[in-house]
Amino acid sequence: MASPDLVMEAGVSRVAVEGLSARLGEGEQERAARLAALDAYERLPLPAWRLSRTQRRNLTTVDFSRIVPFAAQTPAGDVADTGAATRIVNLDGEAISLRLAPEIAATGTYVAPFETALRERPELVRPHFGRIVDPETNRLTALNAALHRGGLFVHVPRGVELREAIELHTIVEHASAFPRLLIVAEEHASVQVLERIESRPATGEGVRVVCSVTEIVANAGARVTYAALQQLGEDVPEIAMRRASVGRDANVEFAPITLGGDIVKSVYEANLEGEGATGGAHGLFFPAGREAFDLSARITHAAPHTTSDALLLGAANGAGQAAFDGMIAILESGAGSLSNLRSLSLLLAPKAHIDSVPGMEIANNDVKAYHGATIGEIDPETLFFCQSRGIDPDEARRMIVAGFFSTVVDAIPSTQARIWVQQRIEAKL
Amino acid sequence: MEKGLIVRGLRVSVESIEILKGIDLTVEPGRVHALMGPNGSGKSTLSFALTGHPKYTVTGGSATLDGSDLLALRPHERARAGLFLSFQYPAAIPGVSVANFLRGARTALRPGDVLPPAKFKKLVTEKMQLLGMDSSVVSRYVNDGFSGGEKKRLEMLQMAVFQPKYAILDETDSGLDVDALRAVGESVNAVRSANSETGLLVITHYPRILQYLHPDTVHVMMDGRIVKQGGADLAERIERDGYDPIREEVAGGVA
Questions:
Q1: Within a domain: residue B196?
Q2: Are B104 and B187 in contact (CB under 8 A)?
């Protein structure tokens, strides 16, 4: 039996949500959840946009009534292979390529597009879906819950340590993307997930957006690394919400790599809920042209002896603007916790702008917490030093900026992805 | 074409204040010239003016390198013409490894002589041994977290790998203890013996590094002018008596 066709109509509507649910062959429970989220979308406010200098373009200037929820045509499957052993490629919401390494399946690990997982293994998905990020957090988490499609579910059984990263590649061409990711690492399991989000040039009318939600559950002693690399065109806004729940002695590392988009609103949160939990964020961002990024990272120390370390490197070129809001919260229950938050920013053009505001909320005296932010330009003495070694000024700037970002780039868990990031950084200079 | 690093009547200002008031100096290939003088006499200004630092404005005179007009070239072009400066305070480049920097710079300096990776590695290893450097330095970031002595050694390594026609060593001895000074002095000699055509201009406040470098000519600079020239014995005299007798001599001569 052929799947029902999707209704091609701009905007976020009941017809679109019901059509998608029917197309995916979902049951009543999923359909009802989507419709409840649609209702929340219609009544909840947008998340805050903090970049005051970018009044002209912000979340309120994205015309959601014109967004293209689905593509009319079946996507063509010409996406460069990254060589990853386990990889799902989504083009305009359809999984056009799905490769699961046999070694991974042999461990009992379950990897699938999110909706496939919801159908095949509801007992693994449902206990966590919407628990870490409530669909009713704001208008855009609700939007994702109403229209989620593509995405990824990963369940790693107790004690299984996976070496190779699992990749999800989301590409936007004719339509918007609403990826939903859920990563569950059971006790002492270990997994790396690498998400890559890109867009192709627009082919038609309407607004394409990427609106994603990622939930991570790291149970006792588990280790999860989640790298999210994105570069969208200057006509594609991105809104992303990523949150991890980190259990006893577990570790979650975020690598947020934000390289492009019309406007980008991206939130990373780690809740250190078990004693001895550790969390980190080591990321970079680089707006250029007229791009504007509003980025936040928040780490909450809710249990004793929890540790966090965050380093965000930002550069801005052209009239690119970014706000980075790093927040460390140590609750009263977080005695003996240790936290370090740093941000370094590099301005490469007179109209470029970065606001970096590291903050701390500490409710327990028995903690150690450090934070710092620096902002500057390329040191003219460093530039002259390079020139005195025969290196022309443009090449010297490339070298200095690549060096500035290297601590974060070098930690990306895939050679191919590292090169991808390096090339995009160069192209923005 | 006249061989040499030739400076004639060079006048240089920094922020409209004249620092160099007409400098004449010639460094021939393979020769060692020492430029000595008290602090603030303008020695470092000469090194930055010759290499093209944007803060220094040449207001008169000329400077040529084997016949090419240095002052018409941009800083990286001066380096490509064969001029090297060992900085008194070399800049750090976090995130850029010594190996990558050396390779990038050598490629820029000698585009016609790019070595395959294995040969380049061999060259660097050989020069590091010559300088008594630990091989782990290549994977560290350029000057990032380096001690004073390590920075000076790295400057010498660059000179050895780039093989410039003329090198200015700006206070390469400053801030070094006796052992580090000897090591740097010996490493300069090691580099020279491997590349005997390089002409050296050794800028120093103290004569002690000259025990190792044996200059052919010593120039003494005071208040933006070269006031005295002589052989290695002039450095010995400064070592013994300091700069005051020369200062009085010059003042007397003017009067």
A1: yes
A2: no
